[in-house]
Each structure stands twice: as structure tokens, then as C-alpha cells.
Amino acid sequence: MLSFEPYGNPTYFALLGVALLPLMIGLLYGKRSRLYETLISIFFLVLTFGGPKWTQGVALIIYILYEVALTWGYAVYRKHQNSGPIFYLMVILAIIPLTIVKVTPAVENGQASLIGFLGVSYLTFRAVQTMMETRDGTLKDYQVMTFLQFMLFFPTISSGPIDRYRRFEADYRSVPDREKYLGMIQKGIRYIFVGFLYKFILAYYFGTMLMPKLQVMAMHSRGGFMDLSWPVLGYMYAYSADLFFDFAGYSLFAVGTSYIMGIATPMNFNQPWRSPNIKDFWNRWHITLSFWFRDFIYMRLVFWFMKHKVFKKPTTTANVTYIINMLVMGFWHGVTWYYITYGLFHGCALVINDTWLRYKKKHRASVPHNGFTQVFAIFLTANMVCFSFLIFSGMLDKLWFH
Amino acid sequence: MDIKETVLGILNDLTGNDVSGAMDDNLFDSGLMDSMGSVQLLLQLQGDLGINVPVSEFERSEWDTPNKIIAKVESLA
């Protein structure tokens, strides 16, 4: 049976084009066929999770039923009652499968968990978010069918972008007018073609041509200070470029396909390499993930800390929460020393960055601000980020411990 | 005290700036506000005006200038 990585090869794109054509004609004539959308969603989900990967498919089905039961149950409960402990219990239950998937390789010598499947983390973000908005009372009208469409929306199922229930629902329940939709098609197609350039040319060059060579060279050049060498530096930049072009390319495919389906899935990247500081970087890199962390972890924790007056100074609250927030992000990537160090690194970077921004605000007159400092800030930020990606890559683990 | 004055007072405190001269300037782009400031704003609104805004109601694009914030608070009051 056929089986594909999403957006992995030309056949996938050819099938995508054929499947989307009737849907596009429908939208152009002001019609959205739920039935047809559901059918092609199932078709592409079977392509991704069927055939040789059928165990993942089974895991996905069980997982979805579990999360539907939790979110639906909570939505019904929330209509009548609103107890804190119940809410926390539901959130914990919702993240248990993801926790098992993330912890299993660390305790079972790299063995992947049986309940895992491609995209389990992205689905968990969506489910938890739905629950939190239900708790806040901002999401009042939870619908099982909409929730299923939201979770199983095939263009973004495997690696995001992470949409929001209410935003998705508004798009999904309406049909864009013809002029707007034509604009969306145009954008969507452009995104997909930029995605080709990113993923199949640039990421291929950096990731498949360059990185393996640099890795071999780096392993041969060990013995110096902390086993570092020029090839390690080269690897750092090649890895960072590969990470960016590969993921930004994938995201462009996912957003482009969504647009063609009349759904304005939010963008994941916004010129991250021109950020003048780390704080700004996280507003531009993997945006839907970092905003998810901002809205559902950082802001909530800060709110809770401040309401209960846990720390005296707001700056302490902010700093502690930065570290927690980024550590959670590190753990989410996987339970290895380098992912956790990566999280800690970014937590500390945000603390330092914030301290500097406060200092700059206070001493505005004496801190120079010109073209040169701007270029320097961008250069420094990009290099700090690349260094953090070197940690993230696991290359140091190979250099030091293998 | 009316809502506009109260909100401006809170914003001036939070940003350490007098924002009343730039009512349509984006507070996040200028770096005067961030997530931390947003939460402080929500807590202050709760304390000073008794307006409850859950964090998930805080859509940044609807709260990014002094004028927008005042309009938002007036609609919730």
C-alpha cells in the first residue's frame, strides 16, 4: 500500500493537487462541502498513517477518541461547574499520552513508545488549548465535530502550525468571498513554491550534502579544547540553515495547502534571522509554538504567581517564569541533556535580554543606537541562536560521549 | 475617575512613560509592553476597575495601542 511522509515527494503533491481541485471549484462558487473535505482528510491521513505505519494509525485513533472524551467531558462539566482541581486533573490527563511518548525513549534506551505517532505533540497542544479556553469561558460552544476537524485537519496534523480552535472554527464555518479566496489561492501557491525552494533545494543542500561531511570532519578533528574545531563551527551554521529551511519549508507547504482550502492557518516564521534580540527572535521563529507557550504557559504562570504574590518583584516573576517556560519547551523536545540544556540556554538568554532592555530603557540617553549597533545586535542574536542550535543538534553529545 | 484616565494611569505606571501623547502607537512594537506587562495590566484592571479578563481573552492585536486598550476596557466594563 502507498505510504507517504506529508509533503515528502512529488507524488504526494500530485495527489494533493488532484484532491484539492474539486474543493477549489466549490469554494470559488461559494460552497464548502464538509463531506468532501472529510473524505480527502481521511484519504491523506490514511496515506500518512496507513500501510506499513498502521500501528501509528491505530495509536492516532485511540488517542483522538481519548482527547475527544476529555475535552467533550470537560466542556459539558464546565457548563455547570468550575472547580480548579478538576481543571488541573483534566489537563494532566490530556498530556499523559505525550508525556509517555517523550519519556519512553529516555528510559528504554531510545526505544520509541508504542502509543506514539507523527504529530502527537501538535495534537496535544491543540487539545490542551481547547480545554484552557473552555476553563476561561472564552470557548463556550464546544462542538465535537468541529473539534475533530480541528484536530485532524490534515495539512497541519504532523508538525503544525498550531492553530487555535476559535480561529479555525471561524474560517471553517464560513466561505471566503471570491475575491478574497482568489487572493488566498495566489498566496497559497506562492507559499508552496517558496517551500519547494526551501525544503527541496536549500535544506537538501545544507542537510544532505553539507552536514554529513562536516560531521565526519568534526569527529576526526577531536582532541582540541572541548573537542571543538573549525568543522564544528561549520556544522553549527549548516545545521542551523538546514533546520530553518527544512521546517520553514514544511510550514509553507502546510500554510499554503490550508489557504487553498480556504483556511488561513497562521504563519510559523517571519524572517527570524533579522531579529535584533532573543525576545524578538521568539516572536519570529516557530511562531505558533512560541505563542502557544507564551499564552498558555508563560502568561498563565505569571498571572498565577502575581495573583498569589509568590515573588516580591515583577522582574523576579518574569525571570523565573522565563526559565520554567523554556525548560518545559526543552523537555517537550525530548528528555535528553542537550534538549534540556537548549531550553535552559534560551531561558537564561531571555532573562539577560530583558535585563538589558530594562537597562537600555532607563539609560536611553547614554546607550548609543545607530545603524552599526543594529547590525551588531542582529549578528550577535543570529550567532547566539546558531550556538543554541548546535546544542540542540546533539552534535556535542556525539563529540563528547561517543 | 473615568475609565480612560484609570487605564492611562495604569499604562503610564506600567511602561514608565507618558503614553497619552501617542494614543495610537503600538506598545508592543516600541517595546513598552510585553507579555509580563500584559498580565500586570489584566491584574490592575481587575483590582482597580473590577473587570475580569481571562488570559485567553487577551488577543494581542486587540490590545496593542492605548486607544484600543481603552476601547476594549470600555466594552467590558
Automatic annotation (TrEMBL), chain B:
PTM note: 4'-phosphopantetheine is transferred from CoA to a specific serine of apo-DCP.
Pfam families found in the cross-reference section: PP-binding
Family: Belongs to the DltC family.
UniProtKB keywords: Cell wall biogenesis/degradation, Cytoplasm, Ligase, Phosphopantetheine, Phosphoprotein
Residue positions, PTM O-(pantetheine 4'-phosphoryl)serine: 35
Function: Carrier protein involved in the D-alanylation of lipoteichoic acid (LTA). The loading of thioester-linked D-alanine onto DltC is catalyzed by D-alanine--D-alanyl carrier protein ligase DltA. The DltC-carried D-alanyl group is further transferred to cell membrane phosphatidylglycerol (PG) by forming an ester bond, probably catalyzed by DltD. D-alanylation of LTA plays an important role in modulating the properties of the cell wall in Gram-positive bacteria, influencing the net charge of the cell wall.
Molecular-function annotations in GO: ligase activity
Protein name: D-alanyl carrier protein
Organism per entry: Levilactobacillus lanxiensis
Keyword Aminoacyl-tRNA synthetase found: no
